[in-house]
Design goal:
With 190 residues, this protein is of the alpha+beta class. It is built from six helices and seven strands. The strands form two sheets. It has a four-stranded mixed beta sheet with strand order 6-5-4-7. The protein has a three-stranded antiparallel beta sheet with strand order 1-2-3, sandwiched between helices.
Length: 190
């Protein structure tokens, strides 16, 4: 999977992490996350080095100090509306992790993000439903383009909701999560 976007839900109340399969059906997994977690992942995506190391940097340094290597992260379960993940290290060592911490580490080091089929079946949406290209499916040029993503037949309310989600994702930036030197909740970072 790959991180497609980090932004706010259409109502502007909850950060959303959007993951997509890189192969196969290219299903998308929208995950509601907290504001500090969204900021941490987005900073990693943008390659921003905050003035002080984040927790994910500490984890990386500890792993290096013990001569180990993180190989991939895996989303293992969706239970009671909460995604669970694990860090998979060399020598077949696995450590339970919050999804957001696992994704932040994977993004920082360019590691694979995987999800079990059960997780994808339970939480994924077809790529057409959450098309992020911003293309207008009624545009004749797009409709004639075989490379353009195919969209499902949506009723007007569904189309409006998808459009609102696209606009929200198009407008998000790292600054939406607070200045890099401050905690998005308003305090100073450790």
């Amino acid at each position: 999977m790959t991180v497609v976007a980090v932004g706010m839900d259409p109502a502007g109340t909850q950060p959303v992490l959007l993951l997509r399969e890189v192969t196969g059906a290219r299903r998308q997994l929208p995950v509601l996350i907290g504001l500090p977690e969204a900021a941490a992942i987005e900073l990693q995506r943008q390659g921003v080095d905050p003035p002080r190391p984040q927790t994910h940097d500490l984890i990386r340094h500890v792993v290096d100090a013990f001569g180990r290597r993180l190989e991939r992260v895996r989303i293992t379960e969706l239970r009671d509306g909460i995604y669970h993940a694990e860090l998979q290290f060399d020598r077949e060592t696995r450590v339970s992790s919050r999804l957001t911490d696992a994704v932040a580490l994977a993004v920082r080091d360019g590691l694979p993000i995987e999800a079990t089929e059960d997780v994808l079946e339970a939480g994924a949406a077809p790529v057409q439903l959450l098309d992020l290209t911003g293309a207008d499916p009624d545009d004749e040029d797009v409709a004639d383009d075989p490379a353009a993503p195919a969209g499902p037949d949506l009723d007007p309310a569904e189309k409006a909701e998808v459009e609102e989600f696209r606009r929200m994702l198009d407008s998000v930036s790292p600054e939406d999560f607070g200045p890099s030197g401050e905690d998005p909740a308003g305090g100073e970072k450790d």
